[in-house]
């Protein structure tokens, strides 16, 4: 069971960019995102033997990245300043008003936004990662998008 060292590295390299986008969406800072990603990759490597089905490697490692980001945020006591200017705003969703609006959402709604739009996961993949029924994910996504629209219209 598990995954070999070389297969771990190969699979991790394939999904590293997507994992970084997720880490960045949580941390809102390049350095913190890289720290979270590095730590998650290391933890995944140490626990690679626990992976029961290698078909779910990306989902499994994504969950580790999310958990590491949330743990780092808890340690920092969520002292992310709203008026902090992002280090780089290369894509449309990196604009500060959008980030501020997402931060105002509850964690269960923001997790779905991060995975669906930053991580570019499908509805089904998001449901597996968050261990929720697909219908719940769809409902929460609609609710989150409605709240974001209202927030950004103001």
Summarize the structure in words:
The protein is mostly helical. The protein has a single domain (5-153), classed as Butyryl-CoA Dehydrogenase, subunit A, domain 3. The protein has 7 helices and no strands. The protein has helices at residues 5-27, 30-46, 57-75, 96-104, 107-118, 123-130, 134-153. Helix 1 (5-27) runs antiparallel to helix 2 (30-46), helix 2 crosses helix 3 (57-75) and helix 3 crosses helix 6 (123-130). The longest helix has 23 residues, at 5-27. The radius of gyration is 16 Å and the shape is globular. The relative contact order is 0.12. Mean pLDDT is 84; it is low at 78-93.
Provide a brief overview of the structure:
The protein has 154 residues and is mostly helical. 70% of the residues lie in helices and 0% in strands.
Could you estimate the helical fraction of the residues in percent?
A: over 70%
Report the strand count.
0
- Mean pLDDT over the full residue set: 84
Instruction: Using the CA coordinates, give the radius of gyration.
Output: 16 Å
What overall form do the CA principal axes indicate?
Answer: globular
Class from secondary-structure proportions: mainly alpha
| CATH level 1 class label | Mainly Alpha
Number of contiguous helices: 7
Number of domains: 1
Order of helices and strands: HHHHHHH
Low-confidence stretches: 78-93
Let me know the largest β-sheet. Answer: none
Distance between the termini: 53 Å
Beta-strand portion reads: under 5%
CATH architecture: Up-down Bundle
